[in-house]
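> example.struct
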């Protein structure tokens, strides 16, 4: 019998982990539970941060880790350009209101929208994420 395995968290590589944690904290209404500044010799924007749901919730914890060689992805993907290797899908009950909220938090609505019932947005460091009904 295999051991019990459960996905617990997702770590997002970024050039600005503390700022991105604050963005997703506002967007999702989850507290920043951990944040660490740069290690000695790293730039001021380096560090690590985490937002997580209450202990009794089943949502994933999000970690934001400084990537020294981070390259902002291009959406939609294009030959020869940096592509997003993953993205967050966020379920909402009102797509228009959720887009307005996300933009107010600092996201940008992507120019290309592949589906009528999904909206692709970009977070402050260029990671795409999807809002869907």
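> example.seq
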């Amino acid at each position: 019998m295999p051991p019990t395995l459960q996905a617990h968290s997702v770590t997002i590589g970024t050039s600005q982990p503390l700022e991105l944690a604050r963005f997703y904290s506002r967007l999702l209404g989850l507290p920043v539970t951990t944040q660490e500044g740069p290690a000695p010799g790293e730039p001021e924007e380096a560090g690590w941060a985490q937002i997580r749901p209450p202990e009794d919730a089943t949502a994933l914890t999000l970690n934001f880790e400084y990537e020294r060689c981070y390259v902002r992805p291009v959406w939609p993907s294009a030959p020869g350009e940096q592509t997003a290797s993953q993205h967050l899908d966020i379920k909402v009950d009102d797509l228009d209101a959720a887009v307005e909220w996300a933009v107010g938090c600092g996201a940008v609505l992507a120019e290309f929208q592949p589906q009528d019932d999904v909206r692709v947005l970009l977070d402050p460091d260029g990671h795409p994420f999807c809002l869907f009904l």
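> remarks
Residues 17-28 form the longest helix (12 residues).
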